[in-house]
């Protein structure tokens, strides 16, 4: 039997807040400048970047682009690019970001129940995640020390699907993975949590079309998600499917 669930760990981008399209819109121009500087003729729109790299941070994206197009960015220059992209994205998020429909109501209900501790586990930089939570009126539920970033919290930066950030969050929270439930919207995010031994609720409500939502539901179930959530109103039922004792639900 699964141990009692004590912690709920949320991805941020397109799980709590509708940020992915805005973020990729902001970073497409910089990515194209980098490709041009490397004499690569291909160019990306924000939508194309999102298809290829959803769930990864900009550092992970640059590593993949270097591998795909066979060029190398010196480490110091890569860090400058990462900082530039972070500034561009935060500016865009502060202007246009909104929460995912229904997410704030569930966060409020969870906080009022007092039955779980909550954290955010993201590939995005800590500063970007905090800016998103503040803009979406969610920061009250997630103090900065409960926001964990694969890009900036770890001794060695990485990105999902590496499970390192989930294992790091569990260690800092004093919560064995089996006592946690993760909420993820992407293949890389779900893979990260599954590899860490954390049951996953796959949220697909942020995908734009029914066809894409169904496609992602199947993909995330195939990865190992315990439940699929099309709407935040389904959260309590999904908690039960993920192994949370129904009597513990909010």
Q: Quick recap of the structure?
A:
The protein has 250 residues and is an alpha/beta fold. 48% of the residues lie in helices and 10% in strands. The protein has helices at residues 20-37, 46-53, 58-69, 75-96, 103-113, 126-135, 164-173, 187-195, 210-223, 235-241; strands at residues 7-10, 117-122, 147-149, 180-184, 200-203, 227-229.
CATH C-level name of the largest domain? Alpha Beta
Gyration radius, rounded: 18 Å
Question: H/E order of the elements?
Answer: EHHHHHEHEHEHEHEH
Q: Which structural class do you get from the secondary structure elements?
A: alpha/beta
Reported by name, the CATH topology of the largest domain is Rossmann fold
User: Strands across the major sheet, in which order?
Assistant: 3-2-1-4-5-6
Number of helices: 10
The count of β-strands is 6
Alpha-carbon distance between the two ends: 20 Å
Q: Approximately what portion of the residues adopt beta-strand conformation?
A: 5-15%
Major sheet description: 6 strands, parallel
Give the full name of the CATH homologous superfamily of the largest domain.
HAD superfamily/HAD-like
* Averaged pLDDT: 93
Helix proportion of residues, in percent? 40-55%
Subunit arrangement of the protein: single chain
User: What is the 3D form?
Assistant: globular
What is the CATH architecture descriptor of the largest domain? 3-Layer(aba) Sandwich
**What is the total number of structural domains?**
2
Query: Could you name the ranges where pLDDT drops below 50 across 5 or more consecutive residues?
Result: none
Pfam families: Hydrolase
Protein name: Haloacid dehalogenase-like hydrolase family protein
Organism: Lentinula lateritia
């Amino acid at each position: 039997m699964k141990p009692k669930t004590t912690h709920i760990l949320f991805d941020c981008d397109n799980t709590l807040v509708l940020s992915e399209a805005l973020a990729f819109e902001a970073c497409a121009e910089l990515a194209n400048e980098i490709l041009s500087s490397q004499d690569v003729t291909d160019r990306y729109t924000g939508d194309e970047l999102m298809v290829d790299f959803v769930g990864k941070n900009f550092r992970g994206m640059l590593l993949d682009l270097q591998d795909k197009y066979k060029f190398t960015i010196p480490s110091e220059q890569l860090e400058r690019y990462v900082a530039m992209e972070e500034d561009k994205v935060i500016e865009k998020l502060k202007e246009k970001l909104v929460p995912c429909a229904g997410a704030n109501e569930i966060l409020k209900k969870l906080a009022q129940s007092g039955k779980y501790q909550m954290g955010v586990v993201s590939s995005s930089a800590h500063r970007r995640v905090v800016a998103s939570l503040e803009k979406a009126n969610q920061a009250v539920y997630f103090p900065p020390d409960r926001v964990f970033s694969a890009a900036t919290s770890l001794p060695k930066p990485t990105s999902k699907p590496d499970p390192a950030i989930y294992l790091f969050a569990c260690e800092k929270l004093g919560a064995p993975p089996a006592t946690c439930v993760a909420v993820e919207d992407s293949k890389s995010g779900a893979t990260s949590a599954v590899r860490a031994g954390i049951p996953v609720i796959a949220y697909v409500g942020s995908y734009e079309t029914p066809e894409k939502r169904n496609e992602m539901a199947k993909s995330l179930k195939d990865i190992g998600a315990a439940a699929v959530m099309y709407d935040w109103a389904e959260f309590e039922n999904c908690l039960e499917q993920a192994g949370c004792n129904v009597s513990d639900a909010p």
